[in-house]
Amino acid sequence: MAVDMTELVESLKNEVSPPGTDLYPSVTDTQWLSRLRDAFWEAKLKKAFSSYTLEDDEIVPISGTTDMPREQQQLIVLFAGFRVALTTFQNMNSSFRAKAGPVEYETQKSAQTLKALLDTLRERINAAMEAVDGTSTGNLAMVIDGLYERTQAISYGDLYYVR
After folding, report:
1. What is the enclosing helix (H) or strand (E) of 17?
2. In which band, very low, low, confident or very high, does the pLDDT at 163 lie, cut at 50, 70 and 90?
3. pTM value surpassing 0.85
4. Whether 95 contacts 106, CB under 8 Å
5. pLDDT of residue 134
6. From CA 59, how far away is CA 4, in angstroms rounded?
7. Which residues, 6+ apart, have CB-to-CB distance to 104 below 8 Å?
8. DSSP state of 64
9. Measured between alpha carbons, how far is 115 from 117 in angstroms, rounded to an integer?
10. How far apart are CA 151 and CA 90, in angstroms?
């Protein structure tokens, strides 16, 4: 038996958008499926799903006939959601300022808020990994810390740090 990855698309959409909204209306199901594929392989690199592989967008057992349990499927959704958050945060302006004559307008996104969101995502993935197969994704903290430092550098105008 196999698990069709297209069945996880709706869960991924729910993961990345608040209830009643669609933050990514132009993203097709094919693009969401691509994110899920990448998330599967990333999780596999982190030693999850050692007894499963991906063939033609279906998760199949390497040996035996046991389908991947739903909690492991949710781990793929969490990884995909984390990857979407990372790319969204990387492309997000942390500060915007406009001035027209005597009128000024400025908005800022708090680096601490972004860090808190990433920390929450990291904790969810770590807890799910430990629940699924007893492993942890401590290296994920380095990615999150790097993104946090980059966001903080941009917010303070330290562009030499970014690129």
Report:
1. none
2. very low
3. no
4. yes
5. 54
6. 6
7. 97, 98
8. S
9. 5
10. 8
